[in-house]
Amino acid sequence: MSKRQKQIHLAAHFPGVNNTTVWSDPAAGSHIEFSSFAHFAKTAERAKFDFLFLAEGLRLREQGGKIYDLDVVGRPDTFTVLAALAAVTDRLGLTGTINSTFNEPYEVARQFASLDHLSGGRSAWNVVTSWDAFTGENFRRGGFLPQEERYSRAEEFLTTANELFDSWYGDEILADQATGTFLRDAKAGAFVHRGRHFDIHGRFNVPRSPQGRPVIFQAGDSDEGREFAASSADAIFSRYATLKEGQAFYTDVKARLAKYGRAHDQLLILPAATFVLGDTDEEAAELAREVRRAQVSGATALKHLEFVWNRDLSSYDPDGPLPDIDPNVSAEHISRGRAQVRMYRDPLAIAREWRELAAANKWSIRDLVIETGNRQNFVGAPATVARTINEFVQADAGDGFILVPHITPGGLDVFADKVVPLLQEQGVFRADYEGTTLRDHLGLTHPDEARTDRVAS
Question: Most buried residue, 26, 181, 241, 280, by CB count within 10 Å?
Fold first, then answer.
């Protein structure tokens, strides 16, 4: 008896806080104007994707006091954009990254509960922490928290937010919320939380939303991040989009669920993935090389190298050889707490390896960064890409993918038009939405279904 094929989950990431997008391409549009967000969302919904995802940038990326040349110049507020998109879509999930380091549980819970009402049950929250010292300078707290403190705060932040979401649930709340009558007495919304990071009490003023709570996403790759996801999240983003690495991540995270009393299907694993399509595999491969070179300018290549060397390399020619000096491992890192520090725990060894690669291949600094950096995950003709995506999901390298096009906002169109129909023909992706909420799309149960204290009838 053959094994039943898994259904693929697909989502779309509107790029905007990284240099994935090729802004120099004539087809590229605005990442500020609402028409771009609307076009992107409508394409994702036309393709029956589970959700649209917005990342968050609380400060423009900079180094040495200069903004990255290929980085975003500004980003609208996530909640404002998602609320506006709720009005121009009907089924598409709306997922936003909101920081737990520089926000407060009450305001975030209130915003997500409101979005869930406005969208008819389509909201999702990607819970993240912050490692950026320069981001912290925008906020009254300042600085950045050590990793163990970040996750401690994030865990209590989510616990507190859930208490607020659940404060309108209980025996004293009427089941028929459609009538607009919610109370038998004055208990609804009352909450008290006493903890290490938060000491609050009061009344939550947004009634129970269609999903009860927003769908919870988590994006950390550290051991703490994986545990956080296994204990509390509905889905986890993964940066592993190769088959072998994806399978290892999938196996590790799924194995952590049992200790929290959770089943294998109660946490979805969704790697982010880029793609380049062509009429043939060869055409797509050539286009992918052009895209990658457009994504890594000379200035970007030098900034990337500075993360390892921990030195100002602005005097070096990006089209010339790698620096012959060693990385500075004694001074405070120039990135001041940024994520890339964790990627290169032994800068001296990385520098030696990169020099050897560059010498053997006659690579310049820019060539090296292009060749050793992230590649497009799925490259080929539509049939090739559809087949590869399905192979990855069936081999448990993920439960689906969050697709990141290199053109905004129209880069998703070709995937929707040429790849999605092939997946539908294979019977591994929906032909239409079967439910109305994001929990329906993802196959997740409503939080109230697991409760024993049912509402009054």
Answer: 241
